[in-house]
Amino acid sequence: MLLPLFALLAAAQAAPAPAPAPKPTAAQLAAAAPASAWGAIDPQDLLLIDFADGRRSMIWLAPAFAPVHVANIRTIARSGWWKDATVYRVQDNYVTQWGDATEKKPPAAGIVPKPPAEYEWAWGAHGVAVDNPYRDAYATRTGFTPSGWAVAGDGARQWLPHCYGMVGVARDLAPDTGTGGDLYTVIGHAPRHLDRNIALVGRVIDGMAALSALPRGTGGGLGLYEDPKQRVPIKRIAIAADLPAAERPAFEYLRPDAPVFAATLEARANRGGPFFTVPAGATDLCNVMVPVRVVGR
Amino acid sequence: MLLPLFALLAAAQAAPAPAPAPKPTAAQLAAAAPASAWGAIDPQDLLLIDFADGRRSMIWLAPAFAPVHVANIRTIARSGWWKDATVYRVQDNYVTQWGDATEKKPPAAGIVPKPPAEYEWAWGAHGVAVDNPYRDAYATRTGFTPSGWAVAGDGARQWLPHCYGMVGVARDLAPDTGTGGDLYTVIGHAPRHLDRNIALVGRVIDGMAALSALPRGTGGGLGLYEDPKQRVPIKRIAIAADLPAAERPAFEYLRPDAPVFAATLEARANRGGPFFTVPAGATDLCNVMVPVRVVGR
């Protein structure tokens, strides 16, 4: 008896006759994709969080969808406003949130203090490389932009979905839209009811465990750390483009307009490998995750 | 500027004219439900995990859906087979798994070594108190049984969905179905592609953070703890009915056949409170979560 839930390809050993070639997984398809299928992520769009314990989380910013909020975030990062930033909220099956735990700090100089509600836009305004053929609980139409983002909508309007690892801007009650000084990421089942109610500005593409595996807070029914000593210190939040070239991280995404992308989508809906006996025949939008890879690690 | 993502009801203060009564949330509806809306959970169906650090996770077992696997689990708990059990796998956005990390221990005496594949059954075999009106990415029909479980299916067959906190039986490649000696729970976005491929046997209803907030493992691309010292020791796994009465935990669930349940479902689809400006108009099955409460804490 063995137990790892996925005994990857372990079945292939010592078969008496050659087995049919196993159907490739989405990860295998991505790994075999040509270089032309991968697009570079602009280092201006990479926000890194260095924790005091040495761990790093990397966020891919989405300036096309929330330009004012993302411009604010770059300004805040460059201003030093986040020098005392901490993670101060971790609510199980919901969000991890970081920024200014005191809620008292004046906004960073040079930001737009009241950004517009960058929550939705015209369907297709950012292109749709692949229409997703599978049903979605919240949206009648979903797909993937050539720029590498899952989108949801109704054919008229479009928005980013609150999938695992997506990053949004904490806000007060409307009409407040948040400045970008406090951010959160989804650490549980996609809270898609937040879609169109809050600005999404990016996605955690590396080092997610530094945000998702933190102790849960107990304050206010919101996962706030009740004792300031519980807060997780952040050493630096910076834009990758501002780092010396030798230290600058680099990432690529699998382009949804590359032919291989549709195959990876189908592979997520009907999984390959020896483990699955009943194919799902579909996939939730938030179970797709546009593949991302680090360059040169 | 303030930051808690949900400033619960904070808007109500000092309004110049009386505001309309805010729409109640699902939690408020459940809290106001009459005693008759709550059903007791049989202490034979409560599996508790006591960790060496004093934390406890509580699992509600589902014997109606997987009777042989659940009978095995009770036998294993009572046999002492789990006395050296540890958590040995934590894969981000996927599962936490526990049991016999060595994979070498002979099965517990008295169990059914090869249970049937208790993965699906005839639609409605366990009753459907409430049909869920919202779309589902994986199933054409979903609902809630009077016994308190979300179910997915196609009107002919029915199965339990892999939502956050659901507990399943780790298995080897088919035809293996797992004994119940090694269990996992979902700690990320619902991996519904596992539905009908594996036996689900319960749901974590309390102490989820003791399983979800653990350090992620790095082994085999599966989140296995590579160093045995990383494994999280478990002091005891027991059935609540076997504890002395004074120590026995007790829980209740909101009955899906109680009139209030449909209102809580609608409240999950169109959230009340001052935060939301655009109602979702729908909810993912895995964002509903049948309410459960502890008795007498």
UniProtKB/TrEMBL annotation, chains A, B:
Protein's UniProt keywords contain Translocase: no
Signal peptide from the UniProt entry: 1-19
Start and end residues of each PPIase cyclophilin-type domain: 66-239
InterPro entries attached to this UniProt entry: Cyclophilin-like_dom_sf, Cyclophilin-type_PPIase_dom
Domain of life the protein comes from: Bacteria
Keywords: Isomerase, Signal
Name recorded for this polypeptide: Peptidyl-prolyl cis-trans isomerase
Annotated source species: Sphingomonas glacialis
